[in-house]
Amino acid sequence: MASQIVDQYGAPVALGSELGRGGEGAVYEICGKSDQVAKIYLKPADHEKTQKISLMLNLGGDSIKEFAAWPIASLHRHPGGPTAGIVMPKVSQPTEIHELYSPAHRKVTFPKADWRFLVRTALNCAAAFQSLHTNRIVVGDVNQGNVLVSEQATVNLIDCDSFQISGNAKTYLCKVGVAHYTPPELDSYKDMRTENHDNFGLAVLIFHLLFMGRHPYSGRYSGAGDMPLERAIKEQRFAYGRNAQQLQMAPPPQCLSLGELTPVLGNLFERAFADPRAGKPRPTATHWCNALLELEAKMRKCSRDPGHFHCEGSPCPWCRIVQQGGPNFFISVSLKTAAARSANINLHRIFFEINSVKPPASSLKRALRKPTQSLAPRPFEAGPDSNKIPRMLVAGITCGGAVLTLMGIFYSVVAYFSVPITLVFSLWWLILWLARPLKKEIRQRKATLKNCREGLHKAKQNLSFVLQHHIELFENKINKLEEAKSRYESLGARRDRDFAQLQASARERQLEDYLERCFISSYKISGIGPTRVVTLESYGIETAADVSYKRVESVPGFGPKLARTLVNWRANQESRFTFNASQGAPASAVQNLDMKYLQEKSQIQTMLAGGPISLRAITNGANAELGRLDENLAELELALAQAKLDATLDEG
Amino acid sequence: MEQRPFGEGIVDDQPAFGTNSFAENPEPRVPCVLILDVSSSMAGDPIKQLNDGLICYKDELTADSLASKRVEVSVVTFGSEVNTVVDYTTSEGFFPPKLEANGLTYMGQAVNQAIDSLEARKQEYKNAGISYYRPWIFLITDGAPNDSNWEQAAQRAVEGDKAKSFSMYCVGVEGADFETLAKFCVLEPLKLQGLRFRDLFLWLSSSQQSVSRSTPGDEVPLENPTVGDGWATASV
């Protein structure tokens, strides 16, 4: 860039080196001004943009210039010419906000940032929007790239020339946007924006910051087919809200929930993303400021992990996520603050406690043996033999019938009557005899005895099944804890092994680099003259790295002898290679490795530390259930004993 | 209200991080399957240029902090057998394989395997509550399919493309059977100029960077690789 650039007053502006380039223009240093930069558009601004920029030069108050890359001067190719660019304040810490809210990035770019830092950044975003809105300026194109975050959690807004500005009886529109941050009711980026539109983008930014980079509308969609984010926004499918289930959405696994914030904040998110009452304005920047200040006042330090901070009123959500098998989102903070502190747990003590937890057991022996001696057979309920008289009458008639029948041998006519009568009455007598009340009761008592035996048998089977089930649960848990223990004990060795592998692959890479710089042409190798060198090159064999017995031998004119010579030469070169340990495995890879093992360590520690409690919970839960079954069994035993006695009682 | 600074802080410089974890990196994903021909006709310079192109592709994705979180690469190769040599990973875990050429051209089977893997991957995204952009399938070959039921695979690819389940791009290297290749995609297959694999992958990476800046479900106009100094020519 030459020196023909001037500002709006015609004063020359000397551009320095290029700092960056985007779709719209390139950014340059300005000689002599370390706190300002110049943005030169790829093509000169049109009339409207020129007007917009000159309006912005008059508009921006000092309070806005503190956090926004607001135009300070316009730039022109010649005095009075079209606007070719702008001068704006230089942002010294250009970290895009997505590098903070993304947990994976945050560990690297902001390793010390805990949740308090994220909440503070959210507060500062809200404060910046509040300032702009007070000055009737609308951001319009809210996105993950034009909010920058400093080391102190303060934010800077860039790309201010796309803001929607009103003045001189005209509104200069924003015209661009990023759909993740665009409210459902905005149909086109070319439409007029309102503060209420901005407040959607602001709410998404705050959600990203508080919810570990999650998007409010990215959830587990249970319907068929794809659910693109843009459609989820249009259909207001807020995955964390009260109505999520009706919308076929569920929050992703291993996530913070609205209930783990202050009720006020939870409500603001509901109103921003899920309120079905159309037309009602979203929470404003001021609402967010107040709610986030309240959250800061209610921030509590986790008692277990020094990297964890959370809202009072619920247990630490970050520990909960780790317990559920998720990552420790603030591992880098824990690492920094707890690395010095001996973070090892006392395995001996924990396993002493684990081993002292009794497995589930049936308390049958205690519950049973209610005194059975005092039991006595119940007397028969049946009264006097109530059908004795009818029975005797019927018997008499039967006998009479029998006598008549005998006589019927001589007078056959009599037999015609007496045989049926005898048969009918003898049958009747049999029925009456069987239906004697006492006999009936004895039969009932025997049936009861049988039922009691069967019932008891079943209950015993059930008890042993339930007992077995709980013992298995208990043993599985013990096995898992034992396995975790051995993983815990092997952490150091596994880390060292991985580290050695990293070093080994670094050595291999260095060796490869080294061999690739050993050109055959620069060495005197017996039998390999310039012609042969050219032949080898034409077969892609240029350096020691390309040499192998098979490859050389396959080149026409190269026999086993030359191949061996070259392989020996390569071995000779290899032997001269020395590994530079300082350029060994890259520091980032080593750190990643340590982070991985620290994460595993913290997961295992949480699991082991909670081991005795969860084992006791298994035993207690099991024993409560077994106790109920035991009671039941004891009652059945008692009933059986009674039934046995009852069944032995005889008519006598 | 005034912004409030947060204490003090120091930044360590280190590039790597756990972008392959859904919880730690919940950014929406741009899945991309590369289906690469490693049949014996690719031996020599073509396979070497292809390998270099893959390395360049990784470097470009890594350099972009947003694309490094959003673009996921999978590589399926086909020669006499079909192999998934890279399973879905962000650039962090993408170590370009050193491909070697040999064997026949089991293209149909490779396309089937790629589509199957995409469907499985989408389900994983859904379970984890991760949004995703329309996936890309990039088929690169210098020959024609040798397997028996490639027509069925081709039809499946075209149907998936039409249903917007994924975008299918076919690139033929000199010597490819473009008439057959055209049956695998809705768009015309592209013809690679010479062995400009490097330029192809630069284009792929920059297209995916602009896609990963758009919104899942958006149509993104891609730079036409056949105009100007592009790496391709139209095949007809």
Automatic annotation (TrEMBL), chain A:
<feature type="transmembrane region" description="Helical">
    <location>
        <begin position="392"/>
        <end position="411"/>
    </location>
</feature>
<dbReference type="GO" id="GO:0005524">
    <property type="term" value="F:ATP binding"/>
</dbReference>
<feature type="transmembrane region" description="Helical">
    <location>
        <begin position="417"/>
        <end position="435"/>
    </location>
</feature>
<protein>
    <submittedName>
        <fullName>Protein kinase domain protein</fullName>
    </submittedName>
</protein>
<dbReference type="InterPro" id="IPR000719">
    <property type="entry name" value="Prot_kinase_dom"/>
</dbReference>
<feature type="coiled-coil region">
    <location>
        <begin position="619"/>
        <end position="646"/>
    </location>
</feature>
<dbReference type="GO" id="GO:0004674">
    <property type="term" value="F:protein serine/threonine kinase activity"/>
</dbReference>
<dbReference type="InterPro" id="IPR011009">
    <property type="entry name" value="Kinase-like_dom_sf"/>
</dbReference>
<keyword id="KW-0812">Transmembrane</keyword>
<keyword id="KW-0418">Kinase</keyword>
<keyword id="KW-0808">Transferase</keyword>
<keyword id="KW-0175">Coiled coil</keyword>
<dbReference type="Pfam" id="PF00069">
    <property type="entry name" value="Pkinase"/>
</dbReference>
<keyword id="KW-0472">Membrane</keyword>
<dbReference type="InterPro" id="IPR051681">
    <property type="entry name" value="Ser/Thr_Kinases-Pseudokinases"/>
</dbReference>
<feature type="domain" description="Protein kinase">
    <location>
        <begin position="13"/>
        <end position="293"/>
    </location>
</feature>
<keyword id="KW-1133">Transmembrane helix</keyword>
UniProtKB/TrEMBL annotation, chain B:
<feature type="domain" description="VWFA">
    <location>
        <begin position="31"/>
        <end position="173"/>
    </location>
</feature>
<feature type="region of interest" description="Disordered">
    <location>
        <begin position="1"/>
        <end position="23"/>
    </location>
</feature>
<feature type="region of interest" description="Disordered">
    <location>
        <begin position="210"/>
        <end position="236"/>
    </location>
</feature>
<dbReference type="InterPro" id="IPR011392">
    <property type="entry name" value="Tellurite-R_TerY"/>
</dbReference>
<dbReference type="InterPro" id="IPR036465">
    <property type="entry name" value="vWFA_dom_sf"/>
</dbReference>
<dbReference type="InterPro" id="IPR002035">
    <property type="entry name" value="VWF_A"/>
</dbReference>
<protein>
    <submittedName>
        <fullName>von Willebrand factor type A domain protein</fullName>
    </submittedName>
</protein>
<dbReference type="Pfam" id="PF00092">
    <property type="entry name" value="VWA"/>
</dbReference>
